[in-house]
Amino acid sequence: MKKESASIRFLYGTVPGRMCLKLFTDPLISKAAAVFLSSRASRAIIPGFIKRNRIDMDRYKVPKGGYISFNDFFKRKLKAGFKISPSSALICPCDGLLTIKQIKNNSIVEAKNCKYSVSELLRDRKLASHFSDGLALIFRLTPTHYHRYCYCASGKIIGQRRIDGILHCVRPIAVKSRKVYIQNSREYTVIADPSTGFVVQMEVGAMLVGKISNSGKCRPGNTALKGREKGYFEFGGSTIIVLLDRRYRLNSDILKRKAVEGEIPVSIGEALLQGDQNCRQK
């Protein structure tokens, strides 16, 4: 895993930097960045970004004539041969770095001095009560990851909510010093799954993410199908949080992987529960 950049260390690790945070976490700054990143001029950034981050473009569709902007490239789609074929009751909703947390007394403990209340996260005490002894799976996406995501479980959608907020960075240095997840803009869907009970899948915006774009089908009364695309993030690293209403035995193949600062690399569509056959891309 890369070390924190000098700019991130400045913003979150120094007094002058923390004084600047209010400006950089304002959603208006992200919206201004999004205007440029959606312009044709931003296409010039794409080749260097691909080379610097060693992105394997063989996985992705490239439109005839190329991408029209950096954001068009950033929300690129997989080729047909890389479609997700889930074979597990619960799957990874995205490519990313996974952190696993137990929920105790309505809290997700991120660091010694930083606890996240599930009630504050959801802004719904009644819903939060379903997860009092469950698990929180936190998937952090870096700018180099594939930024489209799918449903992690199947079932009836019984709730959906958007919560406006500011836009902190979601790198570990920020998460351990600020209550990022309950301050950032976020959107979540509640799924009632016969196999896995109540599941919340939440998308969290981050610094320089102009938009969380979820499908118009993410509405109560509709059905979520695991592996089906749910939406995408525009530019920036960001996070998906999955809340489970009990403590399942997670896939040992994933747990055995080398973790850095508690984060485990995972791929979209991988089986999360022990005993399930790992999902493979066709």
Describe the structure.
- The chain has 282 residues and is an alpha+beta fold.
- The protein has two domains: 6-80, no CATH class; 84-266, no CATH class.
- Helix content is 22%, strand content 26%.
- The chain has ten helices and 13 strands.
- The strands form two sheets. Strands 1, 2, 3, 4, 6, 7, 8, 10, 12 and 13 form a ten-stranded antiparallel beta sheet that branches.
- α1 (6-13) crosses α2.
- The longest helix has 11 residues, at 27-37.
- It starts with 5 loop residues before the first helix and ends in a 16-residue tail after the last strand.
Top keywords for this entry?
282 residues; 2 domains; 10-stranded antiparallel beta sheet; 3-stranded antiparallel beta sheet; 26% strand; globular
Mean pLDDT, all residues? 80
Write down the overall geometry.
globular
Query: Biggest sheet: strands, sense, closure?
Result: 10 strands, antiparallel
* Helix run count: 10
How many angstroms does the end-to-end distance come to? 28 Å
Parts with pLDDT < 50 across at least 5 consecutive residues:
7-13, 17-21, 168-175, 277-282
Percent helix among the residues? 10-25%
Strand and helix map with partners:
Elements: H1 6-13, H2 15-24, H3 27-37, H4 46-53, H5 70-74, E1 96-104, E2 107-111, E3 114-117, H6 118-122, H7 125-128, E4 135-141, E5 148-150, E6 155-163, H8 172-175, H9 180-183, E7 186-193, E8 197-204, E9 212-214, E10 223-224, E11 229-233, E12 238-244, H10 252-255, E13 264-266
Antiparallel strand pairs: 1-2, 1-4, 1-13, 2-3, 4-12, 5-11, 6-7, 6-10, 7-8, 8-12, 9-11
